[in-house]
Write a structure and sequence with these properties.
alpha+beta; 5-stranded mixed beta sheet; 766 residues; 26 helices; disordered N terminus; 5-stranded antiparallel beta sheet; single chain; globular
């Protein structure tokens, strides 16, 4: 156990089990933690006891200074004179007790001011310990636990004024160090570079890094994300390290591992070959090929991927020295030789030549290779694919084929595992068939991940902008750090790109006239004609036609609403955002987690329980008009779980309320028991200030007209006129310009007079 110290005690501790004192002494001689005196101070801070070094002793004998001080006080303390009365004795004891309490509070206050965190030096030393480890394991892990931003040392991201009060200040009594540090953009940019360099050094030695944060102040999350990015690690935040979801999240992170073969330094340098590794790998190219999880995505020759979003790195222009799959000396890995022989035997029965397999140029032209640096079941890749019509005309195929090949090594580095998934999809001959075949859950996630990804980079940035203050870039082109001002500009650009995409889909749908059931209906050209449609007389069997069905494919209506939720949410808009760090963490998870999790992060799921009814959870739309007085709302926003009680449900003398609350809690816990990260549960009541956490996540349907409200949420028809007026009156303070409703936003984007026609935005599909 070590603790680093710079200009005093710095609470950055490193726990390295199995390290000998000799190796630790060598590390100290290299200047990592200074002298033994500094280490002694660190031990004092950790164990909460003060030790004193006897200078007269050549061996430096240590003893507890607090115990000696108490002993001296006992010797100097004299018994009170017997002439004192009982009242005076009680007064002396009371004064002594008050004095002791005052000293304790003063000591605690002084300790709270010394919250120095030299996180950069601590991480550097921890990675060096992992790299110098003599363990035979194939990888090492560094776990960082911190409750604040680095404020001391080389990776300090705070201003000097936030570390101590100014000397000339006349209001020193108002200085509160526990109020949090002030993050400086310039320092944060440098810390991102420094941490990213440390992460790359660690990954080169097969060391993975993960960061767990706690506290309610700014943490400089972007710096920690730069640290874990080279090893595809996680950065998670918790209210406290005693949160119920803390343990389960760490367990999942520890289940991930760096996928590499056994660590042979001689092989890595190219000086020698392993004698017997049990894998059948005897070449340097084999060793490099199995570094990381290799994902090969192959598809038909007339298909080409245009967008790839997710963790890892795309390997471009790889040669035979780094990818052994095309090598003449060893084209097939040992664990794939048996299945390859079976496949070639099957091909020979169909008179297919097998002596030229695998055909290297065909494999190279139809393959996209991605290297994931860590084996994680939650890591997900998303692709956008373009069809090349000229090439398709040559093939004239009825199906498009997709093959996904995943190669990785087990955690011990002794077994190669290969997984192959092959699919085929029919090719739609018309756009109508294409829309009918679309999966409504996939499209919003594909477009949403592309929009969130663009929030971290500027599409107008060129080589001249590299190195500009506030924008630090990696070799891959992704921005490691951008200031808050740049982040807002990039978010606004991403929202414009989303609007342009919606406009293009709507315009194409109108132009081509892809209606089957509504082919005889005149297509309205403006949003003003919507009133003519909604006032049309209908029977119980016929539903009223909506102008939205003419302006956007009805099969994608739910996908459009998900995009609206994403646009006004914390990842793109000014939604329920607690801090700048929360946005960075949520974006990173959204670009990484599977499809089902991403849908939950885009829009909340809502269920309703009525007082006096049965205990049946009825799905309801995630909008503000679902907050009835006599109902209990259960909401799942992926990272947050809500149980909201209406005003009349919490009235006195209601025996069902507590029972229904417990039932709602069990329902949410059962729904999220295997989720990562584990969500937080919030019990809310109408009228409380914290109920805005749920209200801000709901679409403002109260901004629509009463007819549109009823069409979207038919259950509103069961309320009386007075109840409807009272429900709408809850949201009387509403600014439609800052947070437009779904229909207002759509018609402002897709209408014929829309500004998106002249927008400088770029479609998310381009």
């Amino acid at each position: 156990l070590y603790q680093l110290s710079l200009s005093g005690i710095a609470s950055a501790r490193i726990f390295a089990p199995g390290k000998t004192t000799t190796k630790s002494g060598k590390m100290m001689e290299q200047g990592y933690i200074g002298s033994w005196t500094v280490l002694l101070d660190c031990i004092q801070a950790y164990f909460g006891k003060s030790f004193h070094v006897d200078a007269s002793s050549s061996k430096g004998k240590h003893y507890n200074a607090e115990e000696k001080k108490q002993e001296q006080q006992q010797q100097q303390q004299q018994a009170p004179p017997p002439s004192l009365s009982r009242r005076e004795l009680l007064r002396l004891k009371r004064e002594e007790r008050l004095s002791r309490t005052k000293k304790t509070s003063t000591t605690t206050k002084k300790k709270s001011k010394k919250q120095y965190r030299c996180t950069g030096e601590a991480i550097s030393y921890a990675i060096d310990l992992a790299l110098s480890s003599s363990s035979s394991s194939s990888s090492a892990r560094v776990l960082v636990f911190t409750n604040g931003a680095p404020n001391v040392g080389i990776a300090n991201v705070t201003s000097s004024s936030s570390s101590s009060p100014s000397k000339g200040s006349k209001r020193k009594e108002y200085y509160k160090p526990e109020s949090g540090d002030v993050i400086v953009d310039e320092k944060l940019g440098y810390a991102c570079q420094y941490f990213n360099t440390m992460g790359n050094v660690g990954y080169a030695g097969n060391v993975g890094v993960d960061v767990f944060c706690s506290g309610s102040h700014l943490l400089g999350i972007q710096a920690y994300q730069s640290l874990v990015k080279p090893s595809d690690g996680y950065v998670l935040s918790f209210p406290t390290f005693t949160s119920p979801n803390y343990t389960s999240d760490i367990q999942h992170v520890l289940q991930t591992y760096m996928s590499r073969t056994q660590n042979y330094p001689e092989l890595q340098r190219g000086y020698a070959k392993p004698k017997n590794d049990g894998l059948g790998l005897n070449q340097k190219s084999d060793f490099n090929y199995l570094n990381g999880v290799i994902v090969d995505v192959r598809m038909s020759s007339f298909l080409s991927p245009t967008h790839v979003i997710g963790p890892g790195t795309i390997l471009q222009n790889e040669d035979t020295t780094t990818t052994n799959i095309s090598s003449q000396k060893g084209p097939i890995l040992p664990n794939e030789q048996t299945i390859f022989a079976q496949c070639t035997a099957l091909a020979s029965t169909h008179n297919e030549p097998t002596y030229t397999k695998p055909f290297k140029s065909l494999v190279y032209d139809t393959r996209t290779r991605i290297m994931l640096r860590r084996n994680d079941v939650k890591s997900t890749l998303s692709f956008m694919i373009q069809m090349m019509h000229d090439e398709y005309k040559k093939k004239n195929s009825k199906y498009a084929f997709f093959q996904f090949i995943i190669r990785h090594v087990n955690e011990q580095g002794t077994i190669i595992q290969t997984k192959v998934h092959t699919h085929r999809l029919p090719i739609a001959l018309t756009l109508d068939d294409f829309i009918n075949g679309c999966q409504e859950d996939v499209i919003p996630v594909l477009l949403g991940r592309e929009a969130v990804y663009r929030c971290g980079m500027s599409r107008f940035m060129d080589s001249q902008d590299k190195g500009k203050e506030g924008k630090e870039e990696e070799e891959e082109g992704d921005i490691i750090y951008c200031s808050k001002e740049d982040d807002e500009l990039f978010s606004m650009d991403a929202r414009n790109d989303l609007d342009v995409t919606v406009y293009n889909i709507s315009n194409a749908y109108r132009t081509l006239g892809l209606q089957t059931e509504l082919s005889k209906t005149i297509l309205p050209s403006t949003e003003d004609e919507e009133s003519n449609i909604k006032n049309a007389s209908t029977t119980e069997q016929e539903q009223p036609l909506s102008a939205l069905d003419f302006a956007f494919p009805p099969e994608l209506s739910d996908a459009l609403r998900l995009l609206h939720h994403l646009r006004r949410g914390p990842m793109l808009g000014s939604g329920p955002l607690q801090s700048f760090d929360d946005r960075a963490i949520q974006r990173n998870l959204f670009l990484r987690l599977p499809l089902k999790d991403c849908i939950g992060m885009m829009a909340p799921f809502l269920w309703g329980l009525m007082i006096g009814g049965n205990f049946e959870f009825m799905p309801i739309p995630p909008e503000t008009l679902a907050l009835w007085d006599n109902s209990i709302i259960v909401a799942d926003d992926y990272r947050n779980l809500f149980v909201w009680s209406g005003r009349s449900t919490v009235s006195a003398g209601n025996p069902q309320h507590e029972i229904m609350i417990r039932s709602c809690e069990q329902f949410l816990m059962e729904r999220s028991k295997n989720r990562f990260p584990m969500p937080q549960l919030h019990i809310l009541r109408e009228g409380e200030s914290m109920s805005r956490r749920l209200t801000s996540r709901l679409a403002p349907s109260h901004g629509d007209s009463p007819e549109q409200q009823l069409a979207r949420f038919p259950a509103l028809g069961t309320l009386s006129e007075q109840e409807l007026i009272a429900l709408r009156y809850k949201f009387r303070f509403y600014d439609p310009s800052s947070d437009p409703s779904f229909r207002d936003w759509f018609w402002s984007v897709a209408g014929t007079t829309s500004k998106s026609r002249k927008s400088t935005g770029v479609s998310l599909c381009d």
